[in-house]
Amino acid sequence: MEASKADDSTVLNSLFSQSPQGLFVFDAELRVVRYNPSGRGVRHLPADEVIGHQVEEFAPGFRSPEFKDLARRVLATGEPLRCHLLRGPSPSEPGRTLAVELSLFRLNGAQGDILGLVGVVEDVTERQAAADRLAVLSNVHRAVGATLDECSTAEDLVEALVPEFADAATVHLLEAVADGSAPRPAPLQADTPLRRVAFAPGSAQPDGPELGAARPFPFPTPFTQVLNDLRARVLSLSGDTPWLKTDPGQFAPLVEEGVHSMIVAPLTVRDALLGLLTLHRTTRPDPFDEADLDLVQQAALAASAHLGNACTYRREHTIATTLQRRLQPEPSPTLSAVETANVYLPESAGGDWFDVIPLSGARVALVVGDVAGHGIDAAATMGQLRIALRTLALQDLETDELFTHLDEVAAIVADRSAGGDDHVATCAIAVYDPVSRLCTFVRAGHPTPVVLDPDGAPVTVDVPDGPRLGKGGGRAYTPASVQLAPGSLVALYTNGLMATREDDTVAPRHRLEELLAPTGRPLDELTDTAVYTLAPSREDDAVLLLARTRALPPENVTVWTLPSEDSVVATARRLVAQQLTVWNLSEASFDSELIVSELVTNAIRYGEGPIRLRLILDQGRLLSEVTDAGSAAPYVRRARESDEGGRGLHIVMHLSSRWGVRHSRQGKTIWSEQRLDGRA
Q1: What is the DSSP string of 5-49?
Q2: Radius of gyration, CA atoms only, the chain
Q3: Which residue, 152, 184, 379, 472, has most beta carbons within 10 Å?
Q4: How far, in Å, CA of 616 to CA of 359, rounded?
């Protein structure tokens, strides 16, 4: 029995003198009765400062309230506590933070009375620091890169690092990069301006200008050195650190805030510099070390990739938006056929577009289209299709024939882009004639236009949905026509306008009809109301084109039907002269009579059936039209000096500001436009 006691005593003495783990025996009042003086944290402490004292007395600040709660729970329940993580400042190593795993076991007497506790403390500082670094890096990877906005990405980075790893963090981007330019390779000049784009926490900003402000860092400092060699640095700071004196005013807050350790790391993409990441430690006593520097470099590398993507996206978005805006039409001209207003929101730099195209006969074409995709390619495709459509429309093609040709153009564009999409674009067109008040619609995979009468009631127009543009092959499109009363409202739009809210039980198209029902309100007010109420998606472009129809006054339009005989040429000249006298335009009579006589002569010689002569007076223009049942288009040929004829269309070209041929299913119309204000 005595030998057994001696063996137990030897074992206990060896444990308390040689064990690398901290061993503590506490009485029922949680005072230390015996401990291992070689344990981490109490090493080098005098024994009389530990024996007989509670933990908070020799290890102040080491989360003593939590320790007390845990210890009392073990005393009360008898249930052991195993490997509970605690952190706090080291009692024997000032400026050092310890991480320990605490295990507690209750000591019971022979009679079942509670004697105290045994505590086993294992130093896991290095292991926990490595785990903490991995957690911080994992947090960076998880938090950064959720958006394509460089400021949001920078904010996500600093928030992922503070306060778990650093007490403060700042991201500066090169001013040129923040403004949309491509990053430049190092070395950069010391006076390169940088813009502060993110800081955490928001309560203090110790190392530079306010958020959004840009200026160069003083030289020479660690910041300018990193700009030069792209090498991350760990820095220790004190009041007499030399580089702080380069600009005491700027760097004084570093000392005032108690910054004692810093890391300055470059943010780079493919050896080109985006900016700088700066980390501070103030309240945390441990300085940054080489392991921390390695972590920061990995975090900076991961964040730089996302920042680079965000900057590239913004740069391309800016280019695409600029290109898209430049390719949109000029402000809509003042027309007698319609009053127009539009709203164009290029939120995603996609390929939405609209156009208002004046046509012959005082008609107008209203166009809205939507190219698939986003970015520079979509904007360039949009420009090609808009110009192609305008060119085809100015050829006075029928709307369905126009879309067939536009589909062929879109197929060529698709082949060049090799994007592999099922379609290139959708489009809708409305051609309105203010003389007949007939409006003809065609659409290619595009939303059906909204049409309201002057009282705001919806007008049903069943516009067949033709195939989307981009396949070619001569596909057919079917038009739909409706006669509109003056003051009717036509609305063409893209899908981006129709962002459906979760609480919205009304179909977007019907809601748009309701918003536009007060057709007498100014069109600009209606477009604003539509935007405010429909709340278009920020993820897609949106276009709304409104047109309020008008009718030409009957007294400004005159029509005659003439037989196809040579003798009617003189009759046509006389009728024109008489009508111009009624309109007080006798000074234009000579040119107009000559134009009409040539057009009528051409119709008699090369056309078929009776001839219809129409004069339209419209906004300082005189429009002369001759229609016959023939389909053969006239062409201009160069007459020889010996030829007696062949100069008619040359005369028309010379006397007209514009002229052309408009085909229909009933024949063709040759038209001429004269400016009455003297301009060509």
Answers
A1: HHHHHHHHHHHHHH-SSEEEEEETT--EEEE-TTSTTTTT--GGG
A2: 42
A3: 379
A4: 13
Q: Running DSSP on this structure, what letter comes out for residue 338?
A: E
Give me the helix-helix angle, 376-393 and 290-327, nearest 10°.
Answer: 0
Closest of 335, 402, 387, 399 to residue 363, by C-alpha: 335
Helix (H, G, I), strand (E, B) or coil at 299: helix
Residue 540 has pLDDT above 90, yes or no: no
Alpha-carbon distance values, 669 to 357, 592, 613, 629, 665 (Å): 19, 17, 10, 9, 11
Torsion angle defined by CA atoms of residues 449, 453, 457 and 462, in that order, rounded to the nearest 10 degrees: -40
Statement: the pTM of the whole predicted model exceeds 0.85: no
Mean pLDDT along residues 277-304? 91
Tokens of 183: 């990053």
Beta strands in 113-167 (DSSP E): 114-123
What confidence tens digit (pLDDT) does each residue in 472-498 have?
A: 888 999 999 999 999 999 999 998 888
pLDDT over 90, % of the chain: 41
Q: How far is CA 113 from CA 33, 69, 103, 107, 486, in A?
A: 17, 21, 21, 9, 103
Query: Any idea what DSSP says for residue 145?
Result: T
Contact between residue 369 and residue 492 where contact means Cβ atoms under 8 Å apart: no
Residue 469 DSSP SS3: strand
Specify the range with the lowest mean pLDDT, choosing from 117-121, 454-458, 630-634: 630-634
Strand partners, 547: 340, 490
Alpha-carbon 241 to chain mean position: 45
Q: Distance (Å, rounded) from C-alpha 231 to C-alpha 273?
A: 11
- What are the tokens at 190? 């010391």
For residue 491, what is the DSSP state? E
Total residues belonging to the chain: 680
* Residue 366 near residue 560 (C-beta atoms within 8 A): no
In the block, which residue shows the tokens 């995709």?
A: 373
- Quote the CA–CA distance of 541 and 365 in Å, as a whole number: 22
274-283, 426-435, 631-640, 647-656: which has the minimum mean pLDDT? 631-640
* Per-residue pLDDT tens digits for 317-330: 777 777 767 666 67
- Average pLDDT of every residue of the chain: 85
Going across the sheet that includes 658-664, the strands are 557-562, 611-618, 621-628, 667-675, 658-664
DSSP letter string, 508-548: HHHHHHHHH--TTS-HHHHHHHHHHHH---TTS-EEEEEEE
DSSP state at residue 445: B
Q: Return the sign of the alpha-carbon dihedral for residues 290, 292, 293, 295.
A: positive
DSSP annotation string for 561-572: EE-SSTTHHHHH
Which run of H or E residues covers position 611?
strand 611-618
